[in-house]
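For the sake of transparency, this paper describes our internal protein records without simplification. An entry from our holdings is shown next, in its original layout:
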Amino acid sequence: RILMILGDDLNDFVSLGKKPTPEKRRKTATRYSDRWGRQWMALPNPNYGGWERSLYQWEDRAAREAKLKLKRSNLRD
């Protein structure tokens, strides 16, 4: 029996498919909100990961300035 799962990306806990959008990631995380901190423990990597790549639509070859613009447009209050 698995008692707890540790991961640094939402995809470590549930399959999101290829290149999920930030909205899909938010909805999925919310759907499983009862598991966070109990069965699922996230140790986020603040430097990189699927969360970051989803913000610039998985365009890894995009120019740095374009990536920053897309990241900023996803900031929320």
The chain has a mean pLDDT of 90. The radius of gyration is 14 Å. The CA atoms of residues 9 and 45 lie 8 Å apart.
